[in-house]
Amino acid sequence: MSLPKLIVIDDEIDMAGFVSDVATQAGFDVAQFHNAGIFKEKYNKSADVIILDLIMPGVDGIEIIRYLAEIKSNALLILISGFDSGVLHSAQTLATEHGLNFAGSLNKPFRASELGELLNGLSITQKNKHSNIHIKPPPADELRSAIANNQLVVYYQPKVALNNSPEESTMTAVEALVRWQHPEHGLISPDLFVPTAEKNGLIDDLTWTVLEQALAQCMHWRDQGLIMQLAINMSAQTLKELSLPEKMGQIIQKYDLEPSQLVLEITETALMQELVKSLDILTRLRMKGFCLSIDDFGTGYSSLVQLHRAPFSEIKIDRSFVSEMETDSEAAAIVETIIMLGHKLNMKTVAEGVETLSCQKALTALGCDRAQGYLFSRPLPADKVSPWFTTQAEQT
What we know:
Layout: E1 5-9, H1 13-25, E2 29-33, H2 36-42, E3 49-53, H3 61-70, E4 76-81, H4 85-97, E5 101-107, H5 112-120, H6 140-148, E6 152-161, H7 166-170, E7 172-182, E8 186-188, H8 190-199, H9 203-223, E9 228-233, H10 244-254, E10 262-267, H11 268-273, H12 275-287, E11 291-297, H13 303-309, E12 314-317, H14 319-322, H15 329-344, E13 348-352, H16 357-366, E14 370-372, E15 380-381, H17 382-395
Parallel strand pairs: 1-2, 1-3, 3-4, 4-5, 7-9, 9-10, 10-11, 11-12, 12-13, 13-14
Antiparallel strand pairs: 6-7, 6-14, 6-15, 7-8
């Protein structure tokens, strides 16, 4: 089997050689380009990984990012630069917005161990890329049938308390995450079918199906002696229904649960679509005792405005900041500021995407209330949740 292909684009010959040596040791077949213009002329879309310097004479790294987007490159992209870290962040955002497979960035100078760790962490599939079978977004009729035939299942990702307050340490909490148990393709991620639901007027049916299933499970856990707080994502379309507070009140009563056991996670984008109507609905939901969480905080366009307007009880710190806070001082400063802001506004703070013990320790030191991520647990089927919390209790 041939080695994965890696291309280094850097006008500094010594730096390109250093990067190439590290990549070779990491198991890559490496090629170098010291002139970005020549790379554009000769590139045949064969690379698995491209390491790109931003600051180069003639054609610079930003122009190469634009070029890679134009040719629909599927290579993993690593950005390097000795310039201001803010420029590196902007380039990262640009690459992501272009739909490129951004895999990481490094500020020059960096150590061989830092680059080696990044390269060794890449997931590169050694298959013929043209022969891979990708599941396409489903037709609306198929999704409609899936909802009607109970093919949607709910998985639950635990939330873990990070501080020692009695309220946090004794509360069990999960986020409900929908999956589609497809008869042919197996378990399908919501990324593939939620957009179809939103475009074809099925998102309400999907939301209420998930909510019914999750609340029934919460009632079952309660009967087992496990009182669970459940978080569920709410779409922008569902937030347009003025009758939503009454419907939520009825469904929570149906399962004999407390409104405070339900956390409705709402993105800033959803809130902004029909602001006046959303504020009406959210305020009435809070008055009925439901908890409201502003999801993916910091990624929208007017985060502070939304915090001031809407009656949120929780802030979820977006994984894009959490995952970088250990290596990126700006990301760490953003996380710290969000936690401080949340507490000043009497809100709980939840970090998502926690994957390392050192990240957990850093969040704990900053006073974050809860966290979720692969460090603690992947999303679990319903029958695995209670044993997971039992094991956690035994270990503490």
